Amino acid sequence: MMFLPRAVSVVTILVFTLLSYGNAIRSLPNKLACGGDEAHIEFGMSMRFSEAPGYQNGPKCAVLARNGMLLACDPSVVQIAMTIDLEYLRGTVAAVHSVLKHSSCPENVLFHFIASDSSLVDLAELTRIVQSTFPSLSFKVYVFKESIVNSLISSSVRQALENPLNYARSYLADILEACVKRVIYLDSDVIVVDDIQKLWSVSLSGSRTIGAPEYCHANFTKYFSVEFWSDPEFSEVFAGKRPCYFNTGVMVMDLVRWREGDYTRKIEKWMEIQKERRIYELGSLPPFMLVFGGDVEAIDHRWNQHGLGGDNVVSNCRSLHPGPVSLLHWSGKGKPWARLDARRPCPVDYLWAPYDLYKPHDQPHHHHHRYRKQKQQ
């Protein structure tokens, strides 16, 4: 059974802020890959979104805005980091919509959007779209320099995993202002159906730097090559630990500890080894597991119902895991917007559709009745 919290209603007054900041990474392609198919995109003509409903704080929420603005340095502000580009813009918009809809204090949420410096879409245009879709949203936009990681990226099992912007999560401590001490990182193919404040409140015990749902029943060894496991110098990284698989699409990150531990450089070191020795196959995930495996704060599984997009090669349909759900994640090849548009949706894709604000020119917008009809069948 899936537990969906009561949606917050009425109108929000959040304040827009914009910051272009250097050192940051996913390229915007000439073609948009949708569930394995490629389609030319005329950005100005195609990517239009309805204005989201406004949401305002509940009566018990603290007033954090000063002079109508949220401060990134305020530790009480819920800080969320996401990448933003043409290929996943529709997913990013839906994810933001879902966070605001279910938040008890939506006015106290600040989004940090990371865009690529090689974007074929002007940064100002991306900013305009976010601002027009969420007129009172508090957010900042940062520019990521792809040159930082281009030489470190190795080929993967799926081309999308080689996109430089996928590696932005490894550089958040450098990209965001130094005063930002903590952030929630979310992939663009997620929907939040619970109060984000609950995830923000998760404690990272001891010296742990990141928190994420762990899946210890998964075969951890398969994420690394025979080359890796046959070299004691490599496999020794897990000595004395009990590493479990975790998905980096949903993480609570302590950026103070991250900076103190110089974890970005440690991740880069493993990427350099990968270029020489080929010790894994899956993009940006294995370096995280090599650095943090066995030392992750285990968050309840309800906060990452991942794998809804199928596996990395086939866009196959999957069901929700048993138990309550707070966040749905379409990790894998299949994305809900692509499958819905192709009229080949999976049942779980109808859970994503109510948050979709995309407005195609030649067809009506997705409506809630589709999901209700599916439920009745």
Describe this structure in words.
The chain has helices spanning 43-46, 89-102, 123-133, 172-175, 196-200, 226-229, 232-235, 255-261, 263-277, 285-292, 336-341, 349-352, 368-376; strands at residues 31-34, 37-40, 78-83, 109-116, 138-144, 182-186, 190-192, 210-212, 214-215, 245-246, 250-254, 297-298, 327-329. With 377 residues, it is an alpha/beta fold. A hairpin with a 2-residue loop joins strand 1 and strand 2 (37-40). Helix 9 packs across helix 10 (285-292). The longest helix is centred in the C-terminal third of the chain and has 15 residues, at 263-277. Residues 1-45 and 364-377 have low confidence and may be disordered.
Quick rundown:
The protein is of the alpha/beta class and 377 residues long. The chain contains 13 helices and 13 strands.
How does the major sheet shape up?
A: 7 strands, mixed
Number of H/I helices? 13
Structural class: alpha/beta
The residue-averaged pLDDT reads 84
Q: Please give the number of β-strands.
A: 13
| Beta-strand fraction estimate | 5-15%
GO cellular component, one term: Golgi apparatus
GO molecular function, one term: glycosyltransferase activity
Membrane topology: Single-pass type II membrane protein
Keywords: Glycoprotein, Glycosyltransferase, Membrane, Signal, Signal-anchor, Transferase, Transmembrane, Transmembrane helix
